[in-house]
Amino acid sequence: MNLIGRKKPKETAVAMTPSTLLAGERAHRSGWSRGWTRFKRYKPAIAGLVFLCILAVLAIIPGVFAPYDPTLANPDLLGSPPSWSHPLGFDEIGRDELSRIIYGTRVALIVALLATAMAVTIGVLVGAAAGYFGGWVDSVLSRLVDTIMAFPTIALLIALVAVVGPSLKTTIIVIGATVWAAYARVARGDVLSLRERDFIVAARAVGANHTRIIVRHIVPNIAGPIIVLSTLAVGGIIILEAALSFLGLGVQPPTADWGSMLASARAYIQTYPHIAIAPGVMISLTVLAFNLIGDGLRDALDPRGRD
Amino acid sequence: MLRYVIRRLLQGFIVVFLISIATFGILHLTPGDPVLILIGETGRTQLTPQQIQQVRHYWGLDRPLYQQYFTWLGHMAKGDFGESVIQVGTPVRTIIWRAAPVTLKLNAMALILAIAIAIPAGILAGIKQYSFFDYFSNVGATFGVSVPSFWIALMAIIIFALKLGWLPPYGVDSWKGYIAPVLVLSLEQMAIITRLMRSTTIETLGQDYVRTARAKGVAESNVLSRHVVRNSLLPVITVIGYRIAFLLSGTIIIETVFAVPGIGQLFVNSVYHLDYQVVQAVVFVLSVLVVLANLATDLVYAYIDPRIRLT
Predict the structure, then answer these.
(1) In chain B, N or C terminus with fewer CB closer than 10 Å?
(2) Close Cβ partners of B225 (under 8 Å, ≥ 6 residues apart)
(3) By 3-state DSSP, what share of chain B in percent is helix, strand and coil, each rounded to 5?
(4) Which of B11, B157, B267 faces A155 most closely, judged by CB atoms?
(5) Which among B258, B125, B120 is positioned nearest to B183, based on CA atoms?
(6) Contact yes or no for A187/A233 (Cβ under 8 A)
């Protein structure tokens, strides 16, 4: 999927002709600037980035863009279909659907970013420790990861929320504490293959200690894959949050949230089907944006990729 | 091979043991008195302290935690999952057995459908890289992993049940009721398997043995069927085995949306009614199923591919 919208690379012919100027120019460009040049070439990722910037603005200052109060109910107009003054119509208790969509951006991004940060941090620490130290540390941590991976994610999330009680905070913590295992597996694999590479062996041979090897050699080399992994993780986490709220076990009313908006849409699907459309479109577009950016980053940060 | 099987079985056993601790812990190690969680809001207001004490004794909650755990584990191992708190007197095992066939049917059909479409689609996309079909299936797969399944389910109900009237909006009383849940459940798996099949096909096409086969004059159709497809299928089969956990995750939500009376709906309803005995049992059974499926996948894979069991 990382090749969507990309034509067969035509620049290979140009790049293969000997050009001292080009080669000299490339030598002193940093990895990041090369990455950015490659990232820019993948148009869908740029589209995703633009969409994400719009969402970020909506999430930070929703009041400026929302035409109405997202919690103000107008009982006379409940369930009214879209009109010029209310482009997305009213929900089942007469609140403006568009304003709720705009305010819902906030919850989606907060949960997505915090839960991802939590999951990736735990995952990378556990995975890197398992991969780097090996032996019994690896065995213990790997069985722990296997155990968490054996639970169907949604089942574990629901069971935890049921006991702790649903709220925004619970949603973030429960998701973060559940999905890290998958990232630990990836990080472990990366570190494991890195550990046997010549430059690490050389560093160990000249007497570098664990801290120095980890900070100077391991971390910079897994930073790229971890960034890609985190970006691709966000999409799945947004869907998990929406799913929990959809089942009434995530963010609680009256907070505007896309997942809970779909929950009420399901309850009133026979009478007001129009409220089911917008929240789903927003969730899909947001997840798509993160996935496209992730694909772009993966191509851009792959050291084996060509310029 | 025997050493690999023993090692893998041992690992699986350890994981099942850890799962049992985690499942037990979910109800018992959380803040708050498990008895109060068990009897719920109404029980707290209506029962006398003496009656609460009786409930505590009935469920064995007045004994030390490790004793409770081993008693529970012993019961679980014998297939005795306790009694439902809501459907009083009904063994949890009976409730689960009643719901299991529907879930099994639903997931088996979804997985078969996903494989039947994704494998040929992925191979074709990989062979004809950059073609219109490749582009089309790429876009489809990208949307397939980005759009939440429960929203597709809602849209399917609105379009096919409410507007067109072709399918029932919920329930599986007739075979028509299965169409929408099976389709929705298979979409995400289809997207993931297609992408994987495409990338492994492309990788295999670049292998030396494929070039050798072509160089010695093997017909292209034979190169593809004998060398490319057979070698690219292997890693995909493993991943399909590992997808079981995700499939079961999806079934919980999809069954709830379409009101399919399976394990998924049972689970969500038990959570709503705070029927923790059922919640605990379902989580335990599902995750043990996942461990068994993964174990079976690994063993089959090691049997087919000697490189795995030798490392």
Answers:
(1) C
(2) none
(3) 80, 0, 20
(4) B267
(5) B258
(6) no
